[in-house]
């Protein structure tokens, strides 16, 4: 049967596995849009305060997500070998490592909180920022715990579990926003703080729901036995941290690079900054689709790697890139085709919409580089070869991206489109080098076995 495996078979299996991850990722984007929409309609001050806090904490959120992704290939490899007790022990260590990270992040958030007065924000916003910051900080710690459970269930190919939990929590969050922001159903009108409390409650639910599924489900008995068996965990914590740290740093560097580029955009003017924000928000939808398929490929590659099925690994990496390439054409094409109506959804300003339309070409070009780097960064994650990602990420996001955007925007006089023309150069560079490293790693693994 194994010899009859074809690219078509692998492609079908990949898309089935990726489907729930895609739905879950789109759910995250949707609730983010809903939060912004509801807070924005409540008041301008509240929207400004929320924007400040969310941008300040985004790097910590993304880095934490990247760190948790290191657990998936380890669990998938154990699952591929049929070693469920080891997979359960990996969950134990995944939770440990994420709790350790939470402690570090809590210290960082505490320092930030006591320096909020010194960050140059308007005095009138501080009474809104401070309580919201506290609630958001606690909710971020909840996401770290949820991420560990999610990567575990994804690793054993039960991707529908986290999908169902995310969708349910999103519905809870939106209802909670309506009730607590505006003071409905007998609750007091809490404004921005109500939005934060609603998000915290929804994230606490995700942790409770995932823990209930894992620990009180008879079908998870073997995994729970491995979780409880301390002898199974020997030496695992270091391995989990070793895998997660480079991925977390890579995603953190990418986020930090985009955040620094916003400073360059701000120098161009208010209209440019608004247009940049609109197009960045739209591009997040495409990014979520690519990362969902790539995450599914990492799960499959890890499982095949555990069984040393190298033909299947090669076919999976091909299928992932073909799928993402197809999504790139579909997603980017749709965005460009409906760009004006999309921008009008986010802004009523004709100037901002017109400025956003000038970003169509660099937006289209950078989608291909983004898809390439996401596909092969995750293929490397599946092969547990994550350290080489770091130098490539640093060169791409800092040495190339920021200087290129600056040169195109200012010395070359291209303005905001120039900022965006830096993206296809840096992301394509990263994608090509991730592909080269993947091919070398794959050939070495296959050679060593044979």
TrEMBL record:
<feature type="transmembrane region" description="Helical">
    <location>
        <begin position="128"/>
        <end position="149"/>
    </location>
</feature>
<feature type="transmembrane region" description="Helical">
    <location>
        <begin position="97"/>
        <end position="116"/>
    </location>
</feature>
<dbReference type="Pfam" id="PF01554">
    <property type="entry name" value="MatE"/>
</dbReference>
<feature type="transmembrane region" description="Helical">
    <location>
        <begin position="53"/>
        <end position="76"/>
    </location>
</feature>
<feature type="transmembrane region" description="Helical">
    <location>
        <begin position="193"/>
        <end position="216"/>
    </location>
</feature>
<dbReference type="InterPro" id="IPR050222">
    <property type="entry name" value="MATE_MdtK"/>
</dbReference>
<feature type="transmembrane region" description="Helical">
    <location>
        <begin position="418"/>
        <end position="437"/>
    </location>
</feature>
<feature type="transmembrane region" description="Helical">
    <location>
        <begin position="287"/>
        <end position="306"/>
    </location>
</feature>
<keyword id="KW-0472">Membrane</keyword>
<keyword id="KW-0406">Ion transport</keyword>
<dbReference type="GO" id="GO:0005886">
    <property type="term" value="C:plasma membrane"/>
</dbReference>
<feature type="transmembrane region" description="Helical">
    <location>
        <begin position="247"/>
        <end position="267"/>
    </location>
</feature>
<keyword id="KW-1003">Cell membrane</keyword>
<dbReference type="GO" id="GO:0015297">
    <property type="term" value="F:antiporter activity"/>
</dbReference>
<dbReference type="InterPro" id="IPR002528">
    <property type="entry name" value="MATE_fam"/>
</dbReference>
<dbReference type="GO" id="GO:0006811">
    <property type="term" value="P:monoatomic ion transport"/>
</dbReference>
<feature type="transmembrane region" description="Helical">
    <location>
        <begin position="161"/>
        <end position="181"/>
    </location>
</feature>
<feature type="transmembrane region" description="Helical">
    <location>
        <begin position="389"/>
        <end position="412"/>
    </location>
</feature>
<feature type="transmembrane region" description="Helical">
    <location>
        <begin position="350"/>
        <end position="368"/>
    </location>
</feature>
<keyword id="KW-0050">Antiport</keyword>
<dbReference type="GO" id="GO:0042910">
    <property type="term" value="F:xenobiotic transmembrane transporter activity"/>
</dbReference>
<dbReference type="InterPro" id="IPR048279">
    <property type="entry name" value="MdtK-like"/>
</dbReference>
<keyword id="KW-0812">Transmembrane</keyword>
<keyword id="KW-1133">Transmembrane helix</keyword>
<feature type="transmembrane region" description="Helical">
    <location>
        <begin position="14"/>
        <end position="33"/>
    </location>
</feature>
<protein>
    <recommendedName>
        <fullName>Multidrug-efflux transporter</fullName>
    </recommendedName>
</protein>
<feature type="transmembrane region" description="Helical">
    <location>
        <begin position="318"/>
        <end position="338"/>
    </location>
</feature>
<keyword id="KW-0813">Transport</keyword>
């Amino acid at each position: 049967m194994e010899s009859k495996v074809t690219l078509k078979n692998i492609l079908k299996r990949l898309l089935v596995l990726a489907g729930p991850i895609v739905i879950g990722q789109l759910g995250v984007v949707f609730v983010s849009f809903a939060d912004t929409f509801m807070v924005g309609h409540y008041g301008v001050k509240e929207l400004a305060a929320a924007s400040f806090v969310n941008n300040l904490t985004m790097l910590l959120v993304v880095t934490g997500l990247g760190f948790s992704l290191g657990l998936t290939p380890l669990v998938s490899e154990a699952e591929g070998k049929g070693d469920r007790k080891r997979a359960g022990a990996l969950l134990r260590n995944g939770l440990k490592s994420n709790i350790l990270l939470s402690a570090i992040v809590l210290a960082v958030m505490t320092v930030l909180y006591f320096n909020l007065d010194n960050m140059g924000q308007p005095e009138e916003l501080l009474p809104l920022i401070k309580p919201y910051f506290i609630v958001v900080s606690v909710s971020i710690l909840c996401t770290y715990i949820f991420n560990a459970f999610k990567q575990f269930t994804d690793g054993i190919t039960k991707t529908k579990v986290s999908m169902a939990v995310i969708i349910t929590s999103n519905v809870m969050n939106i209802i909670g926003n309506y009730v607590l922001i505006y003071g409905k159903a007998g609750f007091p009108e809490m404004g921005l703080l109500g939005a934060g409390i609603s998000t915290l409650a929804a994230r606490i639910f995700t942790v409770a729901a995932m823990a209930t599924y894992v620990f009180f489900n008879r079908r998870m008995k073997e995994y729970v036995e491995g979780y409880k068996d301390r002898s199974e965990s020997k030496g695992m914590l270091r391995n989990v941290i070793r895998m997660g740290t480079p991925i977390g740093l890579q995603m953190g560097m990418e986020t930090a690079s985009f955040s620094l580029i916003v400073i360059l955009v701000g120098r161009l003017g208010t209209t440019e900054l608004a247009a940049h924000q609109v197009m960045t928000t739209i591009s997040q939808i495409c990014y979520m689709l690519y990362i969902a398929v790539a995450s599914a490929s990492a799960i499959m590659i890890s499982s095949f790697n555990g069984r040393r099925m190298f033909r299947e690994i090669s076919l999976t990496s091909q299928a992932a890139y073909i799928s993402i390439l197809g999504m790139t054409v579909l997603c980017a094409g749709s965005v460009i085709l409906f760009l004006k109506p999309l921008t009008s959804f986010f802004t009523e300003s004709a100037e901002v919409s017109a400025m956003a339309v000038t970003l169509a070409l660099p937006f289209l070009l950078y989608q291909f580089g983004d898809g390439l780097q996401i596909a092969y960064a995750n293929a490397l994650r599946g092969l547990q070869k994550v350290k080489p990602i770091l130098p490539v990420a640093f060169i791409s996001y800092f040495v190339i991206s920021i200087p290129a955007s600056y040169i195109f925007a200012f010395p070359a006089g291209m303005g905001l489109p120039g900022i965006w023309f830096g993206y296809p150069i840096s992301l394509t560079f990263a994608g090509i080098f991730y592909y080269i490293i993947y091919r070398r790693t794959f050939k070495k693994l296959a050679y060593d076995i044979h």
